[in-house]
Amino acid sequence: MTVPDWLADAVFYQIFPERFANADPSIDPDGVVPWGSTPTPDNFFGGDLQGIIDHLDHITSVGANALYLTPIFEADTNHRYDAKDYFAIDHCLGTLDTFRRLIDECHARGIRVVLDAVLNHCGDGHWAFADVVENEAASPYVNWFSVEGFPVTSHPTPNYRTCSGCYYLPKWNAYNPEVRQHHLDVARHWIDEGIDGWRLDVPYFINHTFWREFRKTVKAKGDDLYIVAEEWREPEQWLTGDTADGTMNYTARDLILGFTADRAIEGHELARGLNELYEAIPTGYQRGMLNLLGSHDTERVLTRHAGDVERSLLAYALLFSLEGAPMVYYGDEVGLTGDNDPGCRGSMPWDEESWNRELLDGIRRFALERARSHPLRRGDQRVVALDAETVAIVRSVEGHPATAVVVHRGGGTHFDTADVLDGSSGPITLGPRSTLVIGGGS
C-alpha cells in the first residue's frame, strides 16, 4: 500500500466548472442565464475551463495546491454526470487544447488536478446507449447495459437499469469485459493527458472486483496518482490496499458540523467521534482522506451555519487541523450561500466587493498555519475535549514540538495548556467563539 506522499501537504479546492467563471462566451450553450442568477437543476451559466485558468491566482491565494473538478466530459446537463463521450472535453467548456493549458498552468504553480470518474452510469445520449436504442438486440453494445426488453423505453419507468432510478442515467454493466476495458481506457487516457488522480463517483454501486482492476491500472501509471472514493458512511471498506487511497470524509463533516453548526453534539462527543473515526481508518490511510465541510452535494457551509461567520470559521479551524487533505468548495471561502442541489451550485461571485472578507481571511489564515506547521500536515492526531464547548486537535510528529488547535464555541473559557500538551503548563483564556494554536513550530 502506498498513499501518495504529496497528500500530506495538499489543500484541495473543488470546482463545479459550469459555475466557476465564464471566460469565453463564444462557446456558451444556448439559453445561458446571467451570471449570478438563481441556480436551477437545468439552467446554464456558461462557466468554462478558461475561466478556471484565469482565476488560478485566486485559488492559490486561498492556500490550495490541488483541484478536484466535477465532470468535464461531453454531456447534456450542467453537472455533466451524464457523459456522452468520456474521451472528449465538453465543447461548452473548451477544447482539448484548453484542457492541456489548464493542466500546464496548474502544474507550473504546483497545483495537482483530480478528475471525476463517473463509471457507474453514463448519459442516455452516450453513443453506445444510443446505438442500443436504435438497433435493439442487434446492437453490438446491447450487453454494455442491462436492458430488459425492446423497444427501450424511459417513461413512465425505464426498462433498463439506471443510477437511482434516473431515466437519463443508464447504468453500465460493469460485469461486461468490454465495458471494463472502456472504463480502464478512460482512466489511462486522462492520466496520459497529465491528471494527478481520480475521484470515484458512487463507487459503492459497482463491484469491488472492478475497482481493484481500476487501481492496478491507475497505479501502473504512477504510485503518486491519487484515488479517492465518494463515501458517506464508514470509509474502511475502501482502505484495504486494493481500491482507493482515501475517501471523501463525510463522516468527519457530520461530526464537525454537529458541533459547530447544529450544536447537536458537545465537545466530548465530538472528540470521541473523531478519535473513533481516526482509529477505524487503517494505519497509513489517514493522510489519504479528503476532508470537507461542503460539496456540490450538500448545502453551503455558511448556509448550514445560518449565516454565522464565526461559527463557520470554527468549523474550518477543525477542518484544517485534521490529518488528511482539507478541501474548500468554490465560493464557500467568500461566503456564497445556498441550500442543497441546486442551491449549492450557484455561480462564483467575482465582484470582490461582495466577498465576505472575514471568512476569506480566516480560511487563508488556517491554510497558512497548516502550511507552516510540519505537525499540522504530517503529525499523528488525537482529539481532546476540554469541556462541553471546547475541543483541541493535537498533532504530533517525531522531531517536532506537538501542535494543538483549540476550538471554543461558547462564551469564553479557561484552561491550562497541560490539559492539551504533555510537558507544558500555563493558564489560557479564550474569548467567545474563538480558536487558538498552541505549541508547535515549523
How does this structure look, described?
There is one protein chain. With 442 residues, this protein is α/β, with parallel strands linked by helices. The protein has two domains: 5-120 and 174-372, Alpha-Beta Barrel (TIM Barrel); 378-442, Immunoglobulin-like (Sandwich), CATH 2.60.40. The chain is built from twelve helices and 18 strands. It has helices at 49-54, 56-61, 96-108, 127-135, 177-192, 208-219, 250-260, 267-280, 301-304, 309-319, 357-372, 374-378; strands at residues 12-15, 66-69, 73-75, 83-89, 112-117, 162-163, 166-170, 197-200, 226-229, 246-249, 290-292, 325-329, 380-387, 390-396, 403-408, 413-416, 427-430, 434-439. The chain has an eight-stranded parallel β-barrel with strand order 1-2-5-8-9-10-11-12. A hairpin with a 6-residue loop joins strand 14 (390-396) and strand 15. Helix 5 (177-192) runs parallel beside helix 6, helix 7 runs antiparallel to helix 8 and helix 10 (309-319) runs parallel beside helix 11. It starts with 11 loop residues before the first strand and ends with a strand.
CATH class of the largest domain: Alpha Beta
Q: List the helices and strands in order.
A: EHHEEEHEHEEHEHEEHHEHHEHHEEEEEE
> Which percent range describes the beta-strand content?
15-25%
Low-confidence stretches: none
Q: Indicate the mean pLDDT.
A: 97
Specify the number of helices: 12
Strands in their spatial order, largest beta sheet: 1-2-5-8-9-10-11-12
Q: Percent helix among the residues? A: 25-40%
* Biggest sheet statistics: 8 strands, parallel, barrel
Rounded radius of gyration (Å): 22 Å
Classify the secondary structure makeup into a structural class: alpha/beta
* Molecular shape: globular
